Amino acid sequence: MERFARFMARHHWWVIAFWIILLAALIFLSGRLDHQTRDVFTVPGTESQEALDLTEDDIPAFADPTATVVFHAKSGQVTDEATAQVIGETVANLEKIDHVAEVTDPTGDPYLANNVSKDKTISFVTVSFDVTDFDVLTPETFDEMQKAADPATGAGLEVQYGGEVVDFLNPDTGGLAEYADEISVGLALLILVLSFGSLVFTLMPLTVALVALGTSLSALAVLEHFFTIGTVNPILGTMLGLGVGIDYSLLITNRFRQRLAAGEDPHDAIGRAVATSGKAVLFAGITVSVAASALFIIGVPYVSSLGFTTAMFVLITVAAALTLLPALLGLIGRRIEKLSLPWGKLDQVGKEGVWSRWAGLDARHPRVFLLLPVALLVVLAIPFTSAQLGIIDDGSQPTNLTQRQAYDLLAEGFGPGQNGPLLVVVELPELTTDNEADVLRALEITVPEALRNTEDVSTATEADVSQNKEIGVIEVIPDTGPDDPATTELVEKLRDDVLPDAVKGTTLAQEEVLVGGETAELIDFTDKISAGLPMFVASVLAAAFLLLLVAFRSIVVPLKAMLLTLLSFLAAYGVVVAVFQWGWLRDVIALQQTVPIESFLPLMLFAILFGLSLDYEVFLVSRVREEFDDLDDAGEAVTRGLATTGHVITSAALIMASVFLAFATNPSPTIKQLGFGLAVAILLDALLVRLMIVPSTLHLVKRAAWWFPKWLRWVPRLEIG
């Protein structure tokens, strides 16, 4: 890699031009293609997915994307003649909007009496859209919906909007969240200047990170034209792109500056920096990508796309760090110390007084530096045992959002279950003159009555039979909301007990009675992730163990890294549960109410933390290994390795955590969980594990850290530092 880096440095203008052209081409292409993010929680092989497939084929209205328009009469009733008239006018206006297939009218159709609350102050209409791809809908569609309700709002009615279409068209990005990118870059700039004292030095990792991020986001936008990409993906990618981009480039740039301070020629310094720290960056990037790619094991397309996004952003960042950064350093050369504060001059590099003293303390008191942080991490991990996984719905959104207000009005007027109806889909046998009466009796009388008599069921509608008489659909309203554990228990009870008993002795087959609907889909989504989590964690641990085994030719080092990273993950997970689920200190992060843990959060938290923590592990331990090979003194090697890397590991972790925390200002609880969880995980891992537990462990085991059994001597050694 040394010769490769020198080549990049010598031909810096060509390399810089390549990245500029690549970025410009992707920006141009993404601007020419229609692209939009959309959350689709399909789970192949589940009962809810089978039910969805049946309704899409035979009764598309139940599968079409919808919006809900909720009317609230602050005085009088929605059934009053004047009020009913303006609601009817609103319905007529909504029907004129492009791609609207149908609008229900509770004031004009007696069949829809359930759409009016018992006190008759709240009613709602359902707007169905004849689209399968949300890309054809635009923010102007939501504006037209609001304008369509002018007759109602003009008459004094409160009108709110909810449903999946509104979630798509009207995301909440207000407040500081709109400036998360700028806040991240500003904090990174401040930390770099204060830590390294040089503006030119600071601009190197920032420039590389921003170019890599722009390239990655543009590439993702192009992919959005061809594939379904979730709304979280670009936000996750931006967090990782900024954090990892600055992190990786900082490690290489700092090593370059150390070589310059030692008197080396700039091109030689670039070659050595990439040959050492650059290898560690490449190894760490591959590890993150492997961990993220392992998300495909779960078998959920939404989660797989998150893994793909993570891997793509990280690999593009690694490519930029190993090509664009050497080119920029070759262009700047010794001018990297220009515009420096007193502690940023090259003659100050290597004077790690604070970290030398810290390393000395660790060497003198290894048991204290091991036991105290381990005890703290174990205590922090305790809450994870009570984690409640789920999908955060509109009921957990900020109260100023119309989706949240619509959710609250429906819960007030009809009960919380109105926000998460279930669909019982029955695949009918072929009807004949002999069985038709029995089949329809079971569908229209027996099954609905069994559902209505079930505890925790508020109501069940009459069966809606498809025109081809191949399926029937019954809508079931639970007593509880979509994210309530009681709703999950109800779905299980319907599938395992109520419905099988109801169809027993009828002409309906038990295996052809399915529980579906959006709420059931999200429950199956969560169950699928929960079931796949142990296999995912085991696969990542095994792969990383083998990689570290080859890298360091040691049993202790990879085993220690696996156990400590797992402990960091559990501690960070525990903190997230305590804040978001228990509500501890939730006001500090502007969380309005407690929420369940987003079902995919543990997967992403583990995958990303594992890769990033190994970045610090490799950077620290590879430096310790260098010193050990030179000194043949295990204790002194640890002390010198920690003294020379502690500064940059701390700075990198603070920058990464600052980037993640900036995105925790997002009002969406999902993004808030992701940003906060990753920030806590990085800080715990870098400050407690890598700077305290790892060095103290290496001090205690001494030379045994590098023991390698003879029967494994055939394993090749991968030089990474």
Description:
The chain is α+β, with helices and mostly antiparallel strands. It has helices spanning 2-10, 12-32, 47-58, 81-95, 139-148, 150-154, 164-169, 180-196, 199-226, 232-261, 266-293, 301-332, 353-364, 366-381, 402-414, 436-452, 485-503, 518-552, 556-581, 601-631, 634-663, 669-701; strands at 66-72, 100-103, 122-129, 158-162, 389-390, 422-427, 457-460, 464-465, 471-478, 513-516, 597-598. The protein has 4 domains: 1-32 and 197-351, Multidrug efflux transporter AcrB transmembrane fold (Up-down Bundle), CATH 1.20.1640.10; 65-169, 2-Layer Sandwich (Alpha-Beta Plaits); 354-401 and 534-721, Multidrug efflux transporter AcrB transmembrane domain (Multidrug efflux transporter AcrB transmembrane fold), CATH 1.20.1640.10; 422-516, Alpha-Beta Plaits. Strands 6, 7, 8, 9 and 10 form a 5-stranded antiparallel beta sheet that branches. A 4-stranded antiparallel beta sheet has the order 2-3-1-4, with helices on both faces. It has a two-stranded parallel ribbon with strand order 5-11. Helix 2 (12-32) runs antiparallel to helix 12 (301-332), helix 8 runs antiparallel to helix 9 and helix 9 (199-226) runs antiparallel to helix 12 (301-332). The longest helix is centred in the C-terminal third of the chain and has 35 residues, at 518-552. The mean pLDDT is 88.
